[in-house]
Amino acid sequence: MFTELNGILNASPESFTPGEFILLSDRQSDASFLIHHFLSFYLKARCKVCFVALVQSFSHYNAVSQRLGVSLTQAKEKGQLTFLEGLKESLSVLIPQEENAENQAMSFLRDPAAGLRSLYEFVQSSVVESNGGGGAEEQWGPPVLLVDDVSVLLSLGVRVGAVLDFSHYCRATVCSQLQGNVVMLVRCDGEAEEDDEGSQQLMRGLTHQSCLTLHVQGLPTGYCRDIHGQVELCWKKRQSDGQHTPKKVFQFKVHDKGVSFFARGTSSAVL
Amino acid sequence: MLSELLQGTDIGGFLLIQDSCTYCGRDLLKSFIEAALNREEVIHVVGFDVSEGELKDGLKSSVFQRLHFHNAFADPLGWTDNSPFTVHQFSSSGLTELLNQTAQSKPATLVIDSLSWILRHVSPTAVCHTLQQLKKGGAVRTIIGLLHEDMHSRGIVGSVCRLATSVITVAPRTKADEGLAKITRRSKSGKVVQDEQIFSIRKDLTVTVLSKPTNFGRKQSNTEEQVDPTANLTFNLRLTDAEREAKEKLALPFVFSTEKKTALLHSGPGSGKILYEPDANDDYDQEDPDDDLDV
């Protein structure tokens, strides 16, 4: 959890806006540090987190989260975190063995054209389960869904329409029905001119569905050692205090144990 | 023109609001709903994109009994067993049945949020067919639809726009709470009127139309200014009355009046005559080569 980002977003583990769909996106850059921020943020806020991790292994996220002060193994044992390790589970679909039962959530690998209904049902079962928990378990806060990342589904053969349907259903269940939050990462590598490219259309569709977007990209002037890129924050809804502040741009630098954000031109290397 | 559209005088029409990622058109859609509710109309909303709570947020709660929300947000594809409204129920018969479920004395206004969701799952021809049938049938007074134009190809967007009697395309302005609306309105006689207006939506969903965009204003001021070339010179270009009279009397050398023309072309008595005897080599053409001149 990066305290400077909490200040920018006007949120803290004790108080954050419920029912939000936050979209993280990047173009020719790497926004995964934001996923680590939100993962540790919501775990510290005592929310029930469902993490669909399709690109990295559990040990990777665990190692980074420990540097941010959160232990994923402990959260998983306590029942606070439901972790779907996409890389490992996909093996059970592709190489079926008798000992490992096939995880239904990844069944879209077998038939990508059929859509992501089974993945949605997995998400639904893990977030709804918290509400039906017995008195013996600890009571956790509102459910949170994190997905890292959505564009890899496109390269696995799923259509853009199916991914948008999946995100719609997640939003309907987690944000609207259960007043939880959804955070999704979408990556776009292509140039802006390729209009009919799937990832561009996916990003546009998800932007329409979201109420807060954080877009990470490199500096327009090129590589810099002290400034790793810029983040553009876009709020769609009017803020609760009535002010309409739709866009803010910050530059950032990634350190070993955190990320520092500053207004453009105020990097410590420059001043 | 935006204020006229908000007054809803278009009966039997289809109003389309087009937006994009950079500016959300849902606030304008809510302003239209609010204006229609204030006119005591019955509104049916088919909501795919947002939930009922999010759509009703900002509308005055006293008029909710005339607003019927059909929940297509919770389960539009029928993935659970009891879905209130699925995308496949979007047909003229399905919608007419839905409207008839609530007893009403007068035709209702149908609001579709959004057409983009439906176009992703139903073929564009079927959607256009349904919209056309709804327009012609009597169950619906007007249709207001929201379309995300950057989610579809230009052909599909063009087809839906063709059906609409009014199209409002919204875009952002540099100032955060202002928007730019490009309006195209087709009247029943076939006349098409286009306009551009800057608007802003207040918290109570009333729309304030601000001035036209500045490039329109600049063009008008150029044509109206008449610059006087004889002013601000170090020498005198003006004429006195006597000089103006003499100037007008002057006959210019190559401006011909009819008398001058006939005098030149038909030489009078006393002026020299030219007699010409053609040689054997000459190619004498009896036709007058100047016959086709319009002098």
From TrEMBL, chain A:
Taxonomy of the source species: Eukaryota, Metazoa, Chordata, Craniata, Vertebrata
The protein's annotated pathway: tRNA modification; 5-methoxycarbonylmethyl-2-thiouridine-tRNA biosynthesis
Record flagged with keyword Cytoplasm: yes
Protein name: Elongator complex protein 6
GO terms under cellular component: cytoplasm; elongator holoenzyme complex; nucleus
Family classification: Belongs to the ELP6 family.
Keyword Cell membrane: no
Pfam families reported in the protein's UniProt record: ELP6
Localisation per UniProt entry: Cytoplasm; Nucleus
Origin species: Oryzias melastigma (Marine medaka)
GO BP field: tRNA wobble uridine modification
Gene3D superfamilies membership: P-loop containing nucleotide triphosphate hydrolases (3.40.50.300)
Keywords in alphabetical order: Cytoplasm, Nucleus, tRNA processing
TrEMBL record, chain B:
Keyword Lipid metabolism: no
Primary localization: cytoplasm
Keyword Ligase: no
Pathway listed: tRNA modification; 5-methoxycarbonylmethyl-2-thiouridine-tRNA biosynthesis
Compositionally skewed regions (Acidic residues) per UniProt: 279-295
Cellular localization per UniProt: Cytoplasm; Nucleus
UniProt cross-references to InterPro entries, sorted A to Z: Elp5, P-loop_NTPase
Protein's UniProt name: Elongator complex protein 5
Annotated GO MF terms: tRNA binding
One Gene Ontology CC term in the entry: cytosol
Swiss-Prot/TrEMBL GO biological process terms: tRNA wobble uridine modification
Organism: Oryzias melastigma (Marine medaka)
Source taxonomy: Eukaryota, Metazoa, Chordata, Craniata, Vertebrata
Region of interest: Disordered: 267-295
Superkingdom as given in the UniProt entry: Eukaryota
UniProtKB keywords: Cytoplasm, Nucleus, tRNA processing
Family membership: Belongs to the ELP5 family.
